[in-house]
């Protein structure tokens, strides 16, 4: 846990999602769009180490030493959720080596739909799906799809080739997320990249102002806490509330 | 910074409970990144059926260094004010199997802030001299940092020692043992068990084998260590740390640190 207010250090942003949906490419897009304005570092979690870090280094979007790979001992899920030690050490070292950083991006190893980051590691997370995985994936739900800070539906340029109706997929996703943001993205669609950039800058501003509170998408459906008055469920409603993680009595 | 006694947790746990906690791979200390050199070993000629031998060989070589360093660190970190106010570093009961937590150990002498780090620094030098592989020293410090993160939060009285500088895992473990109340013999067994179980978990990922058979190997290795427990648990002086490294294990550690397409960091 940070010993100083989170808002005084970099924004730590996780990027999760199934294998090959475009997590590394999204990170490269973010670096390309923002590296001139803000100071960025990247941590990658590979199954077989280095692939993602190498890909990103060769993209030439960031000083190669600001892109660090960690090995997860074949436990990519554990390393971002149950035992974040190796990632936290890498993030802290990077923050230390390049103090001050504005943003540290942590790419999870490509995993299944249940893998999400622990709030002990990241302040916010993006979950990445792609149209090639099928238009109905968004409806299948799961913690990342339902409750990541942003859901990206990637590779929209491929939609026609794989017979996916992007608008339908986005609206399914928006429904699964109860209105939380969904971004249809393609690296070939400038306007979509601009929207990603805007979302990120707004998040960064909120983090700096100390107004952003990390949310845990959790491993399962919205969690229910029993208490003597009948219990409450967590929802994620932030209509300008300073405490965006409200407890609603049921 | 001195932690006053009012800040100290009132929790009391038995030495055995603490040892189980620290040996549990579910402890969030970042240890799952290590195979104890097994990954490199398997790629450099170690056969899957020789893994049991590898575990046992580690017990007679590198584990002696690790366990010895942990025991000595435990001894050095155990500074209690004696009757006349001077720091007392003698083993209280002289019984390495002491298994109950003694409340007076919870008192932190102000000396701990300076004396203990200095002494542990001497021990670290001795440990480093007996751990010639830079890769082995590096992973020990990384794993030590992961454990220290837990140590500082759960046993705040360790923070003064653990916070300022990253220390290798056995020294962090010994410091926690001193403050939390793990007996020296349990500490040796903890280091041994953890070492074998790390190899066991890794072999199941690298050379899928019957997991129950591998569990038997862990117990065989720990049993092989048992004869040395008493001797190792009585160590107190940094200079007495066993110098029983194994060149091949050190070589594999170096190979592992630059192994292409590896699953494990170490
Ligand atoms: N057509 C198209 N392809 C894309 C887009 N973004 C990424 N890709 C391709 O999708 C493939 C996978 O992209 P990566 O960025 O490596 O995906 P990843 O999620 O990081 O993959 P893993 O780390 O292996 O899980 C690559 O071949 C990319 O070139 C996009 O917007 N459009
Ligand atoms: Mg990737």
Task: Describe, in short, the structure shown.
The complex is a heterodimer of chains A (250) and B (266). Chain A is an alpha/beta fold and 250 residues long.
Detail the topology: elements first, then pairings.
The complex is a heterodimer of chains A (250) and B (266).
Chain A (H helix, E strand, L loop, with lengths): L10 E6 L6 H12 L5 E7 L4 H8 L8 E5 L4 H5 L4 H13 L5 E5 L16 E7 L6 H4 L2 H5 L2 E5 L4 H4 L3 H11 L5 E3 L5 H19 L15 E2 L6 E3 L12 E3 L1
Parallel strand pairs in A: 1-4, 1-5, 2-3, 2-4, 5-6, 6-7
Antiparallel strand pairs in A: 8-9, 9-10
Chain B lengths: L14 H9 L14 H6 L7 H10 L1 H16 L2 E2 L5 E2 L26 H15 L4 H21 L4 H4 L6 H12 L3 H23 L4 H23 L13 H11 L9
Antiparallel strand pairs in B: 1-2
What would you say this structure looks like, in words?
The complex is a heterodimer of chains A (250) and B (266). Chain A folds into two domains: 11-218, P-loop containing nucleotide triphosphate hydrolases (Rossmann fold, 3-Layer(aba) Sandwich); 221-250, no CATH class. Helix content of chain A is 32%, strand content 18%. Chain A is built from nine helices and ten strands. Chain A has helices spanning 23-34, 51-58, 76-80, 85-97, 137-140, 143-147, 159-162, 166-176, 190-208; strands at 11-16, 40-46, 67-71, 103-107, 124-130, 150-154, 182-184, 224-225, 232-234, 247-249. The longest helix of chain A has 19 residues, at 190-208. Chain A is globular and about 45 Å long. The two termini of chain A are 32 Å apart. Chain B has a two-stranded antiparallel sheet. In chain B, a hairpin with a 5-residue loop joins strand 1 and strand 2 (87-88). Chain B has 266 residues and is an all-alpha fold. Chain B has helices at 15-23, 38-43, 51-60, 62-77, 115-129, 134-154, 159-162, 169-180, 184-206, 211-233, 247-257; strands at residues 80-81, 87-88. Chain B is globular. In chain B, helix 3 packs antiparallel against helix 9. Chain B has one domain (13-75, 119-256): Urease accessory protein UreF. Chains A and B meet through helix 4 of A and helix 6 of B. The structure holds guanosine-5'-triphosphate and magnesium ion.
């Amino acid at each position: 846990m940070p010993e100083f207010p989170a808002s005084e250090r970099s924004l730590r942003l996780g990027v999760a999602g199934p294998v090959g949906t475009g997590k590394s490419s999204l990170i490269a897009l973010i670096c390309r769009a923002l590296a001139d304005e803000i100071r960025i570092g990247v941590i990658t979690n590979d199954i077989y180490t280095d692939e993602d870090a190498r890909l990103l280094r060769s993209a030439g979007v960031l000083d190669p030493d600001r892109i660090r790979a960690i090995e997860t001992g074949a436990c990519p899920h554990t390393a971002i959720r149950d035992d974040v030690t190796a990632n936290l050490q890498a993030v802290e070292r990077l923050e230390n080596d390049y103090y001050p950083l504005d943003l540290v991006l942590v790419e999870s190893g490509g995993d299944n739909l249940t893998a999400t980051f622990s709030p002990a590691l990241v302040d916010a997370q993006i979950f990445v799906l792609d149209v090639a995985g099928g238009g109905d994936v968004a409806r299948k739900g799961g913690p990342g799809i339902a409750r990541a800070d942003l859901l990206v539906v990637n590779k929209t340029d491929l939609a026609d080739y794989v017979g996916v109706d992007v608008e339908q997929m986005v609206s399914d996703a928006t429904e699964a997320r109860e209105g939380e943001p969904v971004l249809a993205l393609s690296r070939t669609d400038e306007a979509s990249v601009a929207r990603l950039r805007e979302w990120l800058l707004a998040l960064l501003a909120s983090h700096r102002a100390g107004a952003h509170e990390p949310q845990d998408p959790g491993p399962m459906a919205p969690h229910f806490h029993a208490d003597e008055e009948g219990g409450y469920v967590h929802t994620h409603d932030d209509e300008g509330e300073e405490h965006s993680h409200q407890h609603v009595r049921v | 910074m001195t932690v006053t006694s009012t800040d100290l947790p009132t929790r009391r746990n038995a030495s055995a409970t603490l040892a189980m906690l620290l040996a549990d791979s579910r402890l969030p200390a970042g240890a799952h990144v290590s195979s104890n050199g097994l990954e490199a070993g398997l790629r450099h000629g170690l056969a899957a059926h020789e893994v049991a031998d590898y575990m046992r060989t580690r017990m007679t070589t590198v584990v002696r260094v690790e366990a010895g360093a942990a025991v000595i660190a435990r001894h050095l970190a155990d500074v209690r004010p004696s009757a006349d106010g001077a720091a007392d570093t003698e083993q209280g009961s002289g019984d390495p199997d002491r298994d109950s937590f003694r409340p007076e150990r919870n008192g932190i002498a102000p000396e701990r802030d300076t004396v203990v780090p200095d002494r542990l620094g001497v021990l670290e030098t001795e440990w480093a001299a007996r751990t010639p592989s830079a890769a082995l020293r590096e992973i020990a410090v990384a794993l030590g940092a992961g454990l220290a993160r837990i140590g500082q939060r759960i046993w705040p009285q360790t923070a003064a020692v653990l916070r300022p500088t990253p220390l290798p895992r056995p020294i962090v473990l010994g410091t926690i043992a001193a403050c939390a109340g793990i007996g020296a013999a349990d500490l040796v067994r903890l280091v041994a068990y953890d070492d074998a179980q790390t190899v066991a978990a890794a072999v199941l990922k690298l050379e899928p084998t019957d997991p129950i058979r591998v569990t038997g190997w862990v117990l065989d290795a720990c049993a092989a260590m048992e004869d040395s427990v008493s001797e190792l648990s009585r160590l107190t002086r940094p200079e007495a740390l066993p110098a029983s490294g194994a060149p091949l294990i050190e070589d594999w550690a170096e190979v592992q640190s630059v192994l292409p397409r590896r699953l494990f960091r170490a």
